[in-house]
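User: Design a sequence. Structure:
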């Protein structure tokens, strides 16, 4: 996973699992794990799957593990600049769980890296709709808007990221770069 997507700050969720700031806080329906090392030796964050147990939805542990493996494989492809391969892995994760917000956000990042900004914006917006506390999606959508010349939209997204995690360094740096007080 590209370092630009990571923030070194972390917190503990209600169940004590490590949660990166761009993930939502873990809830009982979430699953987390630490995968072995990826191509960048980063720890797999706790992620929120789209299933909603209050509605009777269930995602088996096997499906969750398979989806997470696709995320890992996608991260490794992004590290190698193989964005089409990364997108294919994220597609597989989304096929397993169509409500998997992190998979949409990471696929959006691969599209952004390819220069396919409109596809990226669609994925970041979908990730935000599925998980309105997903800081990763706000930051990357903000960067995409900025790259397209949408300064005000970018500022709005960076501010939303800061509203969720006030110490989020990527959003602070982006606002500072844009000449806006965080």
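Assistant: Done.
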């Amino acid at each position: 996973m590209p370092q630009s997507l990571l923030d070194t700050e972390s917190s503990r969720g209600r169940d004590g699992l490590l949660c990166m700031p761009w993930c939502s806080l873990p809830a009982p329906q979430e699953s987390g794990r630490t995968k072995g090392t990826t191509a960048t030796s980063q720890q797999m964050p706790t992620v929120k799957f789209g299933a909603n147990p209050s509605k009777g939805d269930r995602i088996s542990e096997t499906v969750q593990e398979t989806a997470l493996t696709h995320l890992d494989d996608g991260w490794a492809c992004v590290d190698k600049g193989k964005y089409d391969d990364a997108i294919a892995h994220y597609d597989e994760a989304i096929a397993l769980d169509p409500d998997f917000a992190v998979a949409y956000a990471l696929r959006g990042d691969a599209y952004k890296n390819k220069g396919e900004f409109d596809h990226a914006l669609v994925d970041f917006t979908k990730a935000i709709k599925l998980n309105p506390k997903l800081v990763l999606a706000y930051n990357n959508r903000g960067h995409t808007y900025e790259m397209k010349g949408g300064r005000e939209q970018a500022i709005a997204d960076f501010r939303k990221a800061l509203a969720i995690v006030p110490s989020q360094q990527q959003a602070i740096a982006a606002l500072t770069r844009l000449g806006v007080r965080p």
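The chain is about 55% helix and 0% strand. The first helix runs from residue 61 to 79.
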